[in-house]
Amino acid sequence: MKNASTITPAAAAGSSWDVVVIGAGPAGTFSARQLALAGKRVLLLEKSSFPREKVCGGCVSWKATRLLQQQGLEPWSEQLKHGTADRLRLIAGGQSTCIPMAPVSIVSRATFDEYLVNAAVTAGAAFLCQTSAVIGERQAASRTIECREPQHGSFEIASKLVVAADGLSHSSLSRLHNLPDKVADVSHIGIGAIIHEDEAWLNEAGLAPGIVQMAVGRQGYVGLARSTAGQLHVAAAVAPALLAQESALNAVVANILTESGQLTWAERSRVTWCAANWSGTPRLSHRMHCVAADGVFVVGDSAGYVEPFTGEGIYWALQSAANLSSLLATAGTWSNGQAELEWQERHRKFLRTKTKTARLVTTLLRMPRLTRWSIRALNAMPRAAVLLAWLMNGCPSADQVSI
Ligand SMILES: Cc1cc2nc3c(=O)[nH]c(=O)nc-3n(C[C@H](O)[C@H](O)[C@H](O)COP(=O)(O)OP(=O)(O)OC[C@H]3O[C@@H](n4cnc5c(N)ncnc54)[C@H](O)[C@@H]3O)c2cc1C
Predict the structure, then answer these.
(1) How far is CA 12 from CA 20, 356, 376, in A?
(2) Rounded distance from Cα 54 to ligand 1 centre (Å)
(3) How many whole angstroms from 93 Cα to the centroid of ligand 1?
């Protein structure tokens, strides 16, 4: 598979586009694919060179897998190397419980997002990476998108519609004052890395294949998941104060692991994980009250985000992309401004109940005492654990999906 740009900046600037999609994460790639399949002339822009890693646990829920299968990307999980898990071990204050969860595939985001870019290109979308985009003026029936690419410098593209799928940074929206964003005061920051770990050590330390582990401390929580052989995904949500206190991101993770009582893991993190390629995100929890205006439609993390670890982020991004593209495929039939109002309404309805569960889980993870109490309760009442697992992610029947 090759993911280099399929178009030059000059050709992109000289063409006319029905839709320009900004950001090649799950929301952007899937929107681009679905719109290209609907016959639209689509350009997908991405600021990084591709493929790229991203701060993420890499857990793709069964709902995401089912959606991709339903949309003809079947079976993605057979083409990509990945791990699987169906149990969650929750750890706080030296106590732990292992609860069942709906199955997830664990895959590196470099691999997964590259697969989706290829699916968009195969469907007919053009792809231009290493190109940072900012949405500019609306002129008559089109929008200007100001782009910057390292070799060609600055250039402009025009498109009838723009999909902003640029994740938590949503830097493409910086000039659009009618799409304001509200970041939660107490928002954590995401950090993570993929660690090349010794398989035998992981087994000895208790992280058998099939288990996702979540360690909770006062200033954040750390998720650990095994994908393919020797690859450990470390993804954490941490209080900004803890980042200021520690000298390096592996030490931040070690701090939380120590507090949760995971001393062996904390030692490993402090000593051997310092060589890994750590990266961070902007503040995680934010919300846009208005997600569409004047030919610009916002989707995925860019439109709003509730902290991670219900394994829902990728699914939400894909499903909202599917919802948006089915709306934009018929955009020509809407009168002025109607498609924007419709997206506002559909997006709000889609996320309303889903974010409530995620907020509940986040609240639990923000309070180690409450987590400890829940661990004791779950150990005493295993049936409650099954109910919690169902609340978090639903449960597929065997014929609904195969991961
Ligand atoms: C610590 C952590 C762990 C997580 N773990 C999981 C998990 O296990 N399972 C799960 O389902 N979800 C998880 N998530 C959530 C998940 O990563 C996101 O919800 C998902 O990636 C959202 O997809 P997206 O397409 O909206 O944005 P992204 O995946 O962030 O993609 C946005 C893209 O836009 C590009 N971009 C940004 N600005 C510009 C610009 N101006 N011009 C051009 N391109 C631009 C970026 O480079 C990026 O490629 C986790 C998140 C965090 C922070």
Answers:
(1) 10, 41, 58
(2) 7
(3) 30
Distance from the alpha carbon of residue 23 to the mean position of ligand 1, in angstroms: 9
SS3 content of the chain, % helix, strand, coil (to 5): 40, 30, 30
Pairing between β-strand 153-164 and β-strand 17-22 as defined by DSSP bridges: parallel
Amino acid identity of residue 397, one-letter, is: S
Q: Taking a C-beta distance cutoff of 8 angstroms, is the pair 346, 323 a contact?
A: yes
Contacts of 85 (CB under 8 A, 6+ apart): 59, 101, 103, 104, 106, 209, 210, 211, 212, 225, 226
pLDDT digits (tens, 9 = 90+) for 158-176: 999 999 999 999 999 999 9
Ligand 1 pocket residue status of 249, Cβ below 6 Å: no
Ligand 1 nearest atom to the CA of residue 134, by list position:
41
Question: Does 129 contact ligand 1 (Cβ within 6 A)?
Answer: no
Number of helices and strands (H, E) in the chain? 13, 19
CA distance readout (Å), 31 to 36, 111, 127, 244, 300:
8, 18, 13, 37, 10
With the most atoms of ligand 1 within 8 angstroms of its CB, the residue from 166, 211, 291 to mutate is 166
What stretch of H or E contains 13? helix 9-14
CA separation for the pair 145, 157 (Å, rounded): 5
DSSP state of 169: G
Q: Which of 56, 129, 253 to mutate to test the pocket of ligand 1 (most atoms within 8 A of CB)?
A: 56
Higher pLDDT, 336 or 175: 175
CA distances from 227 to 85, 98, 221, 304 (A): 9, 19, 19, 27
Q: CA 126, 129, 132: angle at the middle one, nearest 5?
A: 115
Residue 375, ligand 1, Cβ within 6 A: no
Q: Is 281 in the pocket of ligand 1 (CB under 6 A)?
A: yes
Most trustworthy range by pLDDT among 23-32, 218-227, 349-358, 388-397: 23-32
Q: Check whether 46 has a pLDDT greater than 50.
A: yes
Q: What is the phi/psi pair of residue 91, to 5°? A: -130, 130
pLDDT in tens, 126-137: 999 999 999 998
279 vs 294: CA distance, rounded Å: 34
Q: Is the CB of 57 under 6 A from ligand 1?
A: yes
> Is 304 a pocket residue for ligand 1 (Cβ < 6 Å)?
no
